[in-house]
Amino acid sequence: MTEEEEKLHKHIEKLEEKIRDYEKRDKKLKGLFNKFLLFLFKIFIGKGLKDALYKLFSDLREKKNITTETLSELAAAIVRRFTRIGLLSLIVVATPIIFAILQYWLLSNQNKLIAQQNTRIEQQTYLQEASRRGALVFLMGNIFDEVNSELREDYNKDGIRNLSPQLIGRIIALSNSLIPYRFLEGDSLTNKEYSPERGQLLITLVNSAIDTSSLFKIFQRADFTGSYLGKVNLVYGNMSYIDLQNSKITNSVLENCTIDYADLRNVNFEGTKLNSSSFKRTYLMGANLCGTQLMFSDMTEANLDNVLISKSSLMTIDKEYLIKTKYSKETISKQNNSFDDIYRLKKVTEQ
User: Fold this and answer.
1) Which residues touch 304 (CB under 8 Å, ≥6 apart)?
2) pTM of the full predicted structure?
3) In a 3-state reduction of DSSP, which class is residue 127?
4) Does domain 134-344 have CATH number 2.160.20.80?
5) Which of 258, 270, 303, 315 is the most buried (most CB within 10 A)?
């Protein structure tokens, strides 16, 4: 054998060795692939179904017929397998849904806690605003003392319960300083801004039996808008020329009061007794008179446009006074069908 033939023979042996290596690798890969298929087969087919199929093919090969027992085992295995696959599929599908629901529940609770926290922070802010008014309340107490002193000592020595121009000026300045704000009414903040301090100032002035001339000077220049008067008793009080816009005077008693030429726009009088009171030429546009009592109340030339009033309250208004104000039942539109119907007053168009 020549040298070239020997080299060629060695080269062929190396090639054959490489071929054998490739065949081993291919066989190994085929084995792994078959094992993987077998693994998938076992997962999705299962041992029970596999045994049932094996028995079926064995019966066909050996006995040439299929027994009832073999068919029943195959059917049972198929039912068990599909039930298992369905259960696994249900678990796979349900798992992310369950996690999504839990996440939504946690986020909802977190949002509720954040909302509660924000509400408490808001309440704390308004309570801090209310506490800062302590100095003004202290000033109001000093002014009340001066009012009592001037009325008791008759500062002008004229036998009239009037007040000095200086004190009237201080009262007017104080009313302008008592700005409305939201405060806790029960467990929640009021929907609108009100000033309980202005309400307290008003109650004190009206109940002090001050001469009407001094009261008119105060009411014509002082700011009592947004006053808060809840469950107060002001009988025979004189509040003519006062500006009480956007105030809240609910569940109170204002009987036999004189509130002529006043500005009572958008005042909430709900549940208040206003019997035998005078509202001559008073602006009541947009006021809430639901649940009020208005027997013998004089509303001559009062502006009642867009007033909300309940049926029971409307029936207490004297027909004569209603005609004088140029409002009639024919021009009242029903708002709802509750037990005590609510109406909105509209002015009669003049012919």
Assistant:
1) 284, 285, 287, 325, 327, 345, 347
2) 0.61
3) helix
4) yes
5) 303
